[in-house]
Design brief:
By secondary structure, the protein is α+β, with helices and mostly antiparallel strands. Helix content is about 35%, strand content about 30%.
Length: about 110
């Protein structure tokens, strides 16, 4: 696992803390670290950021959950950095510079 994070789940009611903690514990990559009152602390281990985000979203969807707050997040970016450094960025930029402007298509959103 490359990503480790922790979240604090705040419940709508402390009455169902045990039941919700059981639901959380069944979600892949989740471990209930602590629970008290209307709060549950969860550790998430995931292979990548997308998996981490999917787990976070799954926690938000549990009935009885009020909020999910990310407290800590660590991503091992060494492999991503290595991949980026192995690209021949000079060659890519040169090809872009040589392209006819009519052949360049932009699919982004300039209003972000």
């Amino acid at each position: 696992m490359n990503n480790i994070s922790s979240v604090v789940i705040t419940l709508r009611s402390a009455d169902n803390c045990e039941d919700i903690a059981l639901v959380v514990a069944k979600i892949p990559n989740c471990e209930v670290a602590a629970k008290e009152g209307d709060k549950i602390v969860v550790l998430i281990e995931s292979a990548d950021f997308d998996s981490e985000l999917a787990t976070f979203r799954a926690l938000e969807q549990i009935e009885g959950v009020s909020t999910v707050a990310m407290i800590y997040s660590y991503q091992d970016l060494d492999s991503d950095i290595s991949k980026a450094n192995s690209n021949d960025i000079g060659e890519i930029v040169r090809k872009i510079d040589e392209m006819d402007i009519k052949d360049i298509k932009y699919n982004g959103n300039p209003n972000i």
